[in-house]
C-alpha cells in the first residue's frame, strides 16, 4: 500500500484553507498534517510535524512565505510549493532560488493542485514550462556585465540555443522541431547540461538562464 502524502497548509484565508483541506481529505493518498494562518505558526508547526509537502502563501502575515520557506528548507526535508497570484510574479524567482520546488497559482483547479503535490513529492519541480517562460520573460534582467555559467567555454552554441528555448517555456518536442533535431537528441543535450551545471530539472535550468540574462542576450 502506498504511503499517504502529508500536506501542510499555510494561508491566512480560512476559506482557502478549508477548500484545500476538503480537497486533500476527500482524495485517496493524501492527508492534511496541519494548517496555519500566519508565518510564525507555520514555521513552528512544520518543524514539529515534518510534512512531506508544505503549501505556503507568499503573503502570509507574521513572517512572510519566503521567510518561512527559507527556514523550512534549511532545517527540514519538507518540499515547499509557494502559493501566489499573477500579481506576485516577482516572488517566484526568489522562491525557486531558496530551493522551493515550484509555485502554484491560487486559482488553480483541484486536479492541478493534486498533480503539483504529487510531482513535488516525487522529487521534481512542478513549475509548468509555459508558466516558466511567461514569468522569466517578464523578470529577465539586462545582460550581466560579468561572465556567467553559460559562457561559451561551459556550454556549446547548440546547448545555449536549447537552454534559451527551455527558459521560454518550450517543450522538448517543440525544441526539437525548432532546431531540426530528434527528440532524443534534445533530451541528451538537457541531461548533459544538468550534469555540467549541477541542476536536476528544467525549472532550475531556466532560473540559471534568467540569472545569466540569457532571455535578452541575443548571442
From TrEMBL:
The chain positions of domain Response regulatory read 6-121
Query: GO MF annotations for this entry?
Result: DNA binding
Q: Which InterPro entries match?
A: CheY-like_superfamily, NreC/VraR/RcsB-like_REC, Sig_transdc_resp-reg_C-effctor, Sig_transdc_resp-reg_receiver, Tscrpt_reg_LuxR_C, WalR-like
Q: Which residues form the HTH luxR-type domain?
A: 148-213
In-chain residues carrying the UniProt-annotated modification 4-aspartylphosphate:
57
Pfam families from the UniProt entry = GerE, Response_reg
Q: What is the protein name stated in its UniProt record? A: DNA-binding response regulator
Amino acid at each position: 500500500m502506498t504511503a499517504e502524502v502529508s500536506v501542510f497548509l499555510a494561508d491566512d484565508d480560512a476559506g482557502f484553507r478549508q477548500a484545500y483541506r476538503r480537497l486533500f481529505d476527500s482524495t485517496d493518498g493524501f492527508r492534511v498534517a496541519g494548517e496555519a494562518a500566519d508565518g510564525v505558526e507555520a514555521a513552528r508547526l512544520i518543524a514539529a510535524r515534518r510534512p512531506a509537502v508544505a503549501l505556503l502563501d507568499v503573503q502570509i502575515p507574521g513572517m512572510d512565505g519566503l521567510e518561512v520557506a527559507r527556514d523550512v528548507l534549511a532545517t527540514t526535508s519538507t518540499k515547499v510549493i509557494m502559493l501566489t497570484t499573477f500579481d506576485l510574479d516577482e516572488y517566484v524567482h526568489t522562491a525557486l532560488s531558496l530551493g522551493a520546488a515550484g509555485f502554484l497559482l491560487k486559482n488553480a483547479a483541484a486536479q492541478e493542485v493534486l498533480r503539483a503535490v504529487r510531482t513535488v513529492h516525487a522529487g521534481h519541480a512542478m513549475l509548468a514550462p509555459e508558466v516558466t517562460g511567461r514569468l522569466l520573460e517578464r523578470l529577465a534582467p539586462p545582460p550581466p556585465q560579468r561572465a556567467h555559467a553559460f559562457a561559451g567555454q561551459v556550454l556549446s552554441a547548440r546547448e545555449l540555443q536549447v537552454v534559451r528555448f527551455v527558459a521560454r517555456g518550450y517543450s522538448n518536442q517543440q525544441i526539437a522541431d525548432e532546431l531540426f533535431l530528434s527528440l532524443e537528441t534534445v533530451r541528451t543535450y538537457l541531461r548533459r547540461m544538468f550534469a555540467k551545471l549541477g541542476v536536476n530539472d528544467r525549472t532550475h535550468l531556466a532560473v540559471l538562464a534568467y540569472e545569466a540574462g540569457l532571455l535578452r542576450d541575443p548571442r
